[in-house]
Amino acid sequence: MNNIDILSEDLAVSKSSSKDKNFDVIVGHIEDIVVSETFQEMQSKFMNKYCTEFEDSEENKLSYTPIFNEYVEMFEKFIGDELTKRQPGFHMKDFMKQLSKRSNEISEELFEMLSSFTEFLVFKELMVDHKAFTEGRCVDFSMDLTIRPIKNVDRDEK
Prior knowledge:
The chain is mainly alpha-helical.
């Protein structure tokens, strides 16, 4: 074995701390929870119930505050309870601190959803977007897609 082989082997070694592994496991659990039918139904019902209260403007009404507080309480509790079942000793506040430092390690969609628990403006944007969707004001590109087989044309056949 020469020096290059030894260097190659050393570079392939991965060193992860237990904190890294724990963070990754928790993120995996959260991804499973937020795509679950139960979570999706809860979120959809909540957003349908309150989205009409929100307006896409700079002004924030006082009526938004109790809605935001209810959202935070309901979904933090649900996700926290689910995570505690899957990961004994889990604490949401500790995880949120870690998340703020490691936001680039998770998908943008998941980070935005988790941020909606702590940042009112993210929550408001979520509600305004949902309202636009329910009112049909969002562009739906799914009807504009056409899938066709590609013909493999041999240039010599021309």
